[in-house]
Amino acid sequence: MTHLDRFVAAAIISLVALPSLAQDWIEYIHLTERFSVMLPGVPEVSETTHMSAHGVIFPARVYSVEASSGNYSMTVVDYTEAARRHRERPDQTDASSGERVWVMDVRASIANATQNIRARGGDVTFDAWADIDKVEGHNLQITNPDQSRSFIAIHLNEGRLYILEGTVPRGYPPPGLVQQSLIFLDEEGKRIRYTVDPDGQRIATEQRELGDGLDGVTQMVVE
Question: pLDDT at residue 142 above 90?
Fold first, then answer.
C-alpha cells in the first residue's frame, strides 16, 4: 500500500466512524462524465461555458455542494468536440485555422485553467504538478482575502477537463476526503490507472471495478 493509499484509507475510516458526518456524504459516480468523487451531499448541477486558451467557447457543467464545512464543486469542461468547434468558430483567422490548432488548445487547457484561477487573487501557497492514477494535472492551494482557503485540482482525461475545488472557512481543516477521493472512469464505468513513460505517453491502462461503496456512505450513480 502506497503512502497515498494509506492516507485515503485513514480519511475514509475516520469519516465512516463518525455517523453524524457520514450520513450526509455520498460517493458521487457520474458515468457519462467519467469521474467519481466524495461530496458532502447531492450536488446541484448547472450548465455553463468555458473559454479555452485559444478563445473558443466550450460547454461545461458544474456540480456544486454547499455545506457547513465549506463549498465544493466539480467543473467538467467538454473538449470532446474540439476539432469541430475550432473548425466552425465564427472568428476564424489565419493563425487559428491550422488543422491541428485544436490539439494545442486541448493540451493547453490545464495551464489555461490554472492561470485563470491564479488571476482570481489571493495568496497562492501551493502551486505544482500533480497526478491521480497517472492522469496528469495541477494542484493549487490559495488563501483568500477573507482567510478562507481553496484547494483546487485540475486534470485532463479523454477530452474532458476536470476542475475540482473545495473552499473551507478560516480555521477549518483541508477538504482531504474530497481531494483524495477523485478517480477517473472509462467508458465501462471502471476505475482507470495509466502507466506512462518518461515523456508522459500512456503505454498501458489498468481497469478496476468500483465495488459497492463504503458502509455508511451512500453511493449515487448518475448515467
Answer: yes
CATH of the domain at 24: 3.40.1000.10
- In the DSSP assignment, the letter for residue 189 is S
CA 190/CA 31 separation, integer angstroms:
9
Q: Please, are residues 135 and 155 in contact by the beta-carbon 8 Å criterion?
A: yes
In angstroms, the Cα distances linking 66 to 60, 90, 166 are 19, 38, 10
The contacts of residue 127 (CB under 8 Å, 6+ apart) are 114, 118, 138, 139, 140, 141
Question: Which element (helix H / strand E) includes 151?
Answer: strand 149-157
The pTM score is 0.88
d(CA 113, CA 123): 17
DSSP-assigned letters across all residues of 97-147: --TTHHHHHHHTHHHHHHHHHHTT-SEEEEEEEEEETTEEEEEEEEE-TTS
Q: What is the pLDDT of residue 94?
A: 67
Number of domains in the chain: 1
pLDDT of residue 95: 67
Domain extent, residue 33, equals 3-190+210-222
Mean model confidence pLDDT for the chain = 89
Using alpha carbons, select from 71, 74, 59 the residue that is nearest to residue 28. 74
